[in-house]
Amino acid sequence: MDKKLSLQLDLLVKDLERDTRVVVFTGAGMSAESGIPTFRGKGGLWEKYDPAVVATAEALQLRPRAVWEMHDTLRQTIAACKPNPGHDAIAELEDLFSAVTVITQNVDNFHQDAGSTNVYELHGNAWRVKCVAEGKSWVDRTVPYEELPPKCQCGAMLRPDVVFFNEPLDEAVLNKSFIEAGKAKLMLIVGTSYTVYPAAYVPILAKQNGALLVEFNIEYTGLSAFADVSFYGKSGEILPLFVQKLKNHLAKKE
Ligand code: NAD
Question: Is-above-0.85 flag for pTM?
Answer without folding.
Answer: yes
